[in-house]
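Objective 1.3, modelling of assemblies. Example input:
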Amino acid sequence: MDESIYAKRAGALVRLLPSSAETGCDGAWILKPENRRYLSGFSAEDSQFTESSGSLLINGTNRLLITDSRYTLAAENEAAAFEVYTLKKNFVDDIPDFTKGFNLHNLGFEEDFVTWDLHRKTAETLARLSPPAALTPLNGMVENMREIKEDREVEALENAADMISDILDEVISALKPGVTEKDVAWQIKGLAKEAGAEGLSFPSIVASGPNSALPHAVPSNRKIRSREPIILDAGVRLNGYCSDITRTVFVGEPDDTFKTIYRTVRQAQLAVLEKIHPSVQSTRVDAVARDIIADAGFGAYFGHGLGHGVGLATHEGPRLGPRNAVLLQPGNVFTVEPGIYIPGKGGVRLEEMVVLEAEGPRILTKNDHFYDFS
Amino acid sequence: MDESIYAKRAGALVRLLPSSAETGCDGAWILKPENRRYLSGFSAEDSQFTESSGSLLINGTNRLLITDSRYTLAAENEAAAFEVYTLKKNFVDDIPDFTKGFNLHNLGFEEDFVTWDLHRKTAETLARLSPPAALTPLNGMVENMREIKEDREVEALENAADMISDILDEVISALKPGVTEKDVAWQIKGLAKEAGAEGLSFPSIVASGPNSALPHAVPSNRKIRSREPIILDAGVRLNGYCSDITRTVFVGEPDDTFKTIYRTVRQAQLAVLEKIHPSVQSTRVDAVARDIIADAGFGAYFGHGLGHGVGLATHEGPRLGPRNAVLLQPGNVFTVEPGIYIPGKGGVRLEEMVVLEAEGPRILTKNDHFYDFS
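Predicted structure (tokens):
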């Protein structure tokens, strides 16, 4: 991607800023790695939560990337639309230096990422500038921008989805009783590396038998057995963009209970895909799946939301669940992942990643490993 | 570890609390994963920064672990010294319910981890309790406790150090020109998995030739060549505890410049190990290495601190650098890692992990791959 993409995104943010909170902002301070990458192209990750690789300062006239000497070169290469400032001492102490000539008054900040202590120190230093400046919550303004994907972003997400779809194909065809969940998770990791992924977008879930009843199971040394459900939930990161897919697989034929469960989950998923169109409410989409699962008698066993947005982060907006209605819009990319989990026995989850287009949803996860237990 | 370890640690924290900030605290709210694990044994990681797997509430009479239904079972198994509360709605809304009978007034919180927004919402809800309660920064109280390792912790760290020392042995003996930095990093990951590590304690650094001049290089597709420096910096996590080691390796003989650089770095490291004893100032220890490197003419090329504590986190206290003097104490476990980095050419870093005992430092990283270029 070239410089102009980032200049445009930063410009769009600046135009939105006056609507932030009550007083409006004349600049934004961006620390969250995904927001930082979205607005500047700077791809560094934070090595530890407390060890930031840099932040952005954006207003109507300036685009500044503040980092330390470890990252200066990478920042200059990747964030051509930004001027790079290398810290002399540390972020807070250097504020008077790098804000010189900025004429800030009200700087938007990421209130759900900046720690209480960093906010306090930054606010104190900003207040001593001349003219003094203040911090105001951005209220998810950049995250909201990120929910509507540009065509180039959809393409990047589709590439990431293609990669994990192919990987699951290979994993599923090699699956046999006796291998452990950990073995399978390791195989996914190896295939992602071979395929050239930046990494996994989240630690893979490989959950077999009773473990599949835990929506967030961690791969164990349990050996896979025939006829039991095996949930494979994985994703890769490619050029910054994440993918996320789930298939539930059986080696051999499951019993009738799991056939019914599988059929119900798949039916719920297909009904949702029928229902989605621009401007539909997220809660109504969730209800389509929830009602089908409840009607089949499994209402108590679908304990999580229907889906979540995917982009530079694996989990982002829009969220599709029973609460917090939002209108789905063209350009949204999100998962549709109903599930039924019977404690102590096992579960089934099926997850597709889709982009919402004017005509309806288009599936990005092109892996056709589904059963027809009708 | 059994229940009593955690009950003891929580008890020690409660006794320290009245000294927190100016007003004193009568309880602590602990979210940071390492602090949470240290005090309770609960080992879950936070899947995303914004998605906490739980927090602790500790005071003179109560030890409560607050989590959601995904983690209830794990919490009950691992944190036997804690009562487990499963969230009904979410943390903030459930505060009145799970603090019932707690009689809190001033709750310590981790000001460098809790976000501005979570602090605001929590403080508002606490203020409406009867009697109302307030939040006060803990100022690193738990992190300070963690700096002095118990014998069982030193043992755990030694096991993690042994594992990565053996892994580097194997990696170094297999190293040959033509393999890429990424290949080597992948090999380290595979060996860690085979050896039974929980994972790497940080993404391995494999930096060859000019890349070795970047202290935080990311493994690339660059192929290793003979006679150039190759920095291998890696660690594993085992039973929660981290290790961290660096060796600089040459395939074939380096030129005289790099022989001199290597000799200087090693000499600085050995001099530091001679100098360390209980109650020595961290800045004085750092100066020992810095002076030797400066005297050899490389003063401008050692741009980072001498070392850092290692424990449940890879980077923790005590920090050994030119600023912020602290007295080193028996029970501290930290790295000694001088380095010299010549931009565009290459660098050498050597890192040992040591425990400070009454008699002096004991090296935990038992890998003897050092060169004698005298």
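Chain B touches chain A through 31 residues (CB under 8 Å).
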